[in-house]
Specification:
The structure holds two protein chains of two kinds. Chain A has helices at about 1-15, 25-35, 40-75, 80-110, 115-120. By secondary structure, chain A is mainly alpha-helical. The radius of gyration of chain A is 19 Å and the shape is elongated. Chain B is elongated. Classes of the chains: A mainly alpha, B mainly alpha.
């Protein structure tokens, strides 16, 4: 359980990439629907493609790095310092990818108007506190 | 923050730094627990835990790739 948790933690908790990546297919569909200006729509969709390429490259690298980490976690005698050292590239590659995605996020801002932004990136729906779910 | 047209790079950096601090603190605790678990088990017992770890990893990798 503890080992699985460690892997899980490095896998998810240590990554900023999901937090700065909107659902890209949904975003592309909303850009096609809500950005009527052809030139700006194409620019915005090109950013989606770049984001997809960045997240794909990140995922591929992540799988390789996790293999190495997993080999270390498998050995009972591996000291924490070695695990932490091995995790550093995971953290670094996540930072690089998150930075790239943030750059792209701010390129969207230069392409879209505020009203288009509100349609393409609606705030997450949250249930009011104390709301009862219907059966 | 992604929905906020006015969010700045600085807003993101602040949120990321806060997450990193929380992650680092949690990982330190987890590493200490792992060392404790390792000291309380034999190699054979540790090996038996491998299945659970690989199951979790495989599920995560599938999730990442899809």
């Amino acid at each position: 359980m503890l080992i699985a948790l460690t892997t899980y933690l490095y896998f998810h908790f240590s990554s900023h990439v999901p937090a700065v990546t909107p659902p890209l297919d949904q975003t592309a569909a909303l850009l096609r629907k809500d950005v009527v200006d052809d030139v700006r729509q194409k620019q915005a969709l090109a950013i989606v493609d770049q984001m997809k390429a960045t997240t794909k490259a990140f995922a591929t690298q992540r799988v390789r790095s996790l293999d190495t980490l997993n080999d270390l976690l498998a050995k009972r005698a591996t000291p924490a310092s070695q695990i932490e050292q091995c995790a550093q590239p995971l953290i670094a590659e996540d930072k690089v990818a998150a930075e790239e995605l943030l750059d792209l996020r701010f390129r969207w801002k230069s392409v879209l108007t505020a009203s288009e932004w509100a349609k393409v990136f609606p705030p997450p729906v949250t249930e009011p506190t104390g709301a009862k779910k219907s059966a | 923050m992604n929905a906020n047209y006015g969010a700045t790079r600085s807003d993101y950096e602040t949120a990321i730094n806060e997450e990193e601090a929380a992650r680092d603190a949690f990982l330190k605790k987890l590493m200490a627990l792992r060392e404790r678990a390792a000291s309380l088990t034999t190699d054979a017992e540790w090996e038996k835990l491998k299945k659970a770890r690989l199951r979790a990893l495989d599920a995560d990798l599938q999730d990442l790739i899809s």
